[in-house]
Design brief:
InterPro entries: 4pyrrol_Methylase_sf (IPR035996). It comes from Larkinella humicola. This is O-antigen ligase-like membrane protein. Keywords: Membrane, Transmembrane, Transmembrane helix. This protein is mainly α. It has a domain of 165 residues. The protein has 18 helices and two strands. Strands 1-2 form a two-stranded antiparallel ribbon. A hairpin with a 6-residue loop joins strand 1 and strand 2. The longest helix is centred in the C-terminal third of the chain and has 34 residues.
């Protein structure tokens, strides 16, 4: 026992964990930022605290061999990303709308993206050894912080979307998208670790429990893009990992006495939990029903149908904004097709659909370079999901499915909430052939000469 603990907490492993914590503070730090700022009231409403938190993440990513050893990355994705940034920086400098006069903040964002990628190429591939367990720990802590914040917030009521509230009075609101992203990351990481052959029984049970807990958080955030992404992720997992032979072996294994005993114990445990936490089950059920009803009303509105009270169904605010964006695109295509060629200018129009905004604001150059990067990343992700080369690449591949869904649903093509994860894709996805065999799930054994 002591020897295994010593192996786990060697200086080398501690430094690898430090790198991963720094990466997660950058790409998934906002749930904890909101918790510290608004729940613990350390620096409410402070942008300086947010900047300091991200700066700490960058500092944790600096290795002792900084600048002395750089690592390979996916040059295809890097080249396409650089082409898109060349387009948007050109538009920001020479072709922007009259209202957009100060590009300082945007320049800082792009420097943050470049700095993050530069730090990543200094970080060794060995973080694969600890990446997924640290993701699980980090995201579970963030989920628990959200639960604590909701329980102690007198302005939050059951039925509202799960998010830490900020602001004052009637302007008080929250951002459930950052918490749904964190929950989905936890689901993916727990799934990868639970189905890993080397994972022990107790750790597997804990991972599955954390996965179910995170799914509950995901339901409470009621974010459509994350729910759609979760459905796609589950579908891709079954498509690439479940074979007839595996189904037959699983059925045979389930009939063994040990498996039957485990199912009995699990059934008794679930029954006890449901009896003791009936209110919690009812709350989650209510969230699920409300989510389904709200989205069905959006479907009815698109079809021009009526709801049960015989009033015409209407789109909610989020769906209504995107419907307006698609109408705007339709008007451009019908009467102002020339806009598509060169675009309307840097950040001239906010459409809340990244792919569409790249087309409207930056024309053919911006749309082609952005979609080339996004669909190339999708290609590498699907290949990685199929091959499952290593835990880090597989995690990023599944995580990218959520980012890809959001390209059609919410956000802007310039946001660091996209580009920081994209940097991870550039650094680690599609280059597993460069890793040492001990980092791979299925190392290729070279024949002896």
């Amino acid at each position: 026992m002591l020897s295994s603990l010593k192996e786990l907490f060697t200086w080398r492993k501690i430094h690898l964990m430090r790198y991963v914590v720094g990466i997660l503070m950058v790409i998934d730090g906002y749930p904890l930022i909101f918790f510290f700022k608004e729940t613990l009231r350390i620096a409410p409403g402070s942008t300086a605290f947010t900047a300091a938190f991200l700066a700490l993440g960058f500092a944790l990513m600096i290795p002792f061999h900084f600048l002395r050893k750089l690592y390979r990355l996916n040059t295809n994705l890097l080249n396409m990303a650089l082409l898109f940034f060349a387009v948007i920086i050109f538009y920001m400098a020479f072709y922007r709308d009259q209202w957009f006069r100060d590009g300082t903040m945007d320049t800082i964002y792009y420097i943050y993206v470049a700095l993050f990628l530069f730090l990543l190429i200094n970080i060794p591939n060995d973080i694969i050894e600890v990446f997924v367990p640290i993701v699980i720990a980090f995201t579970v802590i963030s989920n628990l912080a959200l639960v604590y914040a909701l329980m102690t917030d007198p302005t939050w009521n059951i039925g509202q979307r799960a998010a830490i509230q900020y602001g004052e009075g009637e302007y008080r609101s929250g951002n459930p998208h950052v918490f749904s992203r964190n929950a989905l990351m936890c689901v993916v990481a727990c799934g990868i670790w639970a189905f890993r052959p080397q994972t022990g029984f107790i750790v597997r049970i804990l991972a599955l429990g954390s996965c179910v807990f995170s799914m509950g958080i995901l339901v409470m955030t009621q974010t459509r893009s994350s729910i759609v992404a979760l459905i796609l992720i589950i579908g891709l997992f079954f498509m690439f990992n479940i074979r007839p032979r595996q189904i037959k072996e699983a059925i045979h294994g389930l009939t063994r006495p040990a498996s039957l005993l485990l199912f009995f114990v699990a059934f008794m445990g679930i029954s006890y939990f449901m009896r003791k936490n009936g209110d919690l089950i009812a709350i989650l059920y209510g969230y699920a029903v409300a989510f389904i009803e709200r989205n069905l009303e959006n479907v009815y509105a698109v079809l021009g149908m009526k709801v049960q009270n015989q009033f015409a169904a209407t789109l909610d605010a989020s769906a209504g904004n995107r419907a307006t964006s698609f109408v705007y695109l339709q008007n451009i295509l019908e009467g102002h097709i020339h806009v598509i060629l060169v675009g309307q200018g840097y950040k001239s129009t906010y459409l809340d659909v990244p792919l569409m905004e790249a087309l409207i604001n930056h024309g053919i150059p911006g749309f082609v370079t952005f979609t080339a990067f996004c669909f190339s990343a999708l290609f590498y992700s699907l290949k990685t999901i199929r091959d499952n080369p290593d835990t880090l690449s597989t995690f990023l591949a599944y995580f990218y499915i959520m980012l890809f869904v959001q390209l059609f649903t919410n956000g802007r093509p310039y946001e660091i909430s996209f580009w920081h994860p994209f940097c991870l894709m550039i650094r680690f996805v599609g280059i597993s052939h460069l890793y040492s065999p001990n980092l791979l799930n299925h190392p290729v054994v070279k024949p002896a000469l």
